[in-house]
Write a structure and sequence with these properties.
With 293 residues, the protein is an alpha/beta fold. It has helices at 18-34, 69-81, 159-167, 187-208, 258-266, and strands at 2-9, 39-41, 84-94, 97-105, 111-116, 140-143, 147-150, 172-176, 180-182, 211-215, 218-221, 224-227, 231-233, 239-242, 249-256. Helix 3 (159-167) runs parallel beside helix 4.
């Protein structure tokens, strides 16, 4: 079976009106639908600028409940277009508890999946630990047009997250992302970072025999220039399609799910895993050999 997926890459600059961003997204979603998309995916925290560059408690006012205004807008859009939508939102769970959350809506607009980002970074200009409580819903796979695994940005650097999502049956892993360059970095640094990012996604696809979809934003916000490059990668690690580094894009790609079976027969990595010897993965570091368990 082939599923047509659309990745919507756009700018969400500081000072943008949320309603305007949603209308931009809706126009892109309608374009994706006109190209036959069945699943539409947003970039990370798509409905606002990337606010985590500084620690400012007033920016927590950007969070909203789920269901809430933005998720309701997306649900109505999914129903109107007869498509599935997966979207990354800033969730207000209760006073003082906020999450970076992906939701998944079916063609009827019903939220059928929800994932809260598990790995939270705390780096210069990416002060997410100030805003986000680590996720507590576990790894999530949603049964829609395809079995969709929901992960978010910083999760993409952890092979365990991709593996556990695969073991739940994921056929396509979605990584909504906000990643970019600091204006003071060298051209060599910039190239190395982007290539490492691409390599990690290719590695997840290869090691797990799954499709991978990474959706990044574009544009300059504060000290960061987001590098776009939204991409879809096949189970064999081929970058099937890739968007521009600096322009908005509706990237529509056919994902042949039959390639998962074909790839895993040739590269049976899941079959050959020594699950009896992986006990050490539950440790922060190993000070001595761990007996098989």
């Amino acid at each position: 079976m082939t599923v047509r997926v659309a990745l919507l890459q756009h700018a969400s600059p500081a000072g943008s009106d949320r309603a305007q961003i949603l209308q931009t997204f809706a126009a892109m979603a309608r374009e994706a639908k006109s190209k036959g998309a069945q699943i539409i995916a947003t970039q990370e925290l798509f409905a606002s600028h990337y606010f985590c560059q500084i620690e400012d408690s007033a920016r927590m006012d950007l969070a909203e409940s789920i269901p809430g205004p933005t998720s309701t807008f997306l649900s109505n859009l999914a129903r109107e277009l007869d498509v599935e939508i997966t979207a990354s939102l800033f969730e207000r769970r209760t006073a003082g508890i906020y999450h970076n959350t992906s939701i998944y809506m079916n063609r009827g607009g019903e939220i059928i999946g929800k994932y809260r980002k598990m790995h939270i970074p705390d780096d210069p200009r990416f002060y997410e630990k100030f805003y986000f409580t680590p996720g507590d819903l576990g790894w999530q796979v949603v049964d829609g047009c395809a079995k969709a695994g929901l992960l978010i940005c910083w999760d993409q650097w952890y092979p365990e997250a991709a593996r556990l999502t695969t073991l739940l049956g994921a056929e396509i892993i979605f990584y909504p992302t906000a990643i970019g360059w600091w204006h003071g970095e060298t051209e060599s640094d910039k190239r190395q970072q982007r290539e490492a990012w691409i390599t990690m996604h290719r590695a997840h696809a290869i090691a797990n025999g799954v499709w991978v979809a990474a959706i990044n934003r574009v544009g300059t916000e504060g000290d960061l220039k987001f590098w776009g490059s939204s991409m879809v990668i096949s189970p064999s690690g081929e970058v099937v399609a890739e968007a521009s580094t600096d322009e908005p894009c509706v990237l529509v790609v056919d994902c042949n799910l039959a390639l998962i079976e074909e790839t895993r027969r040739g590269w049976p990595f899941l079959r050959d895993r020594r699950i009896d010897a992986f006990g050490g993965l539950a440790c922060r570091m190993l000070d001595a050999p761990v007996a098989n368990r």
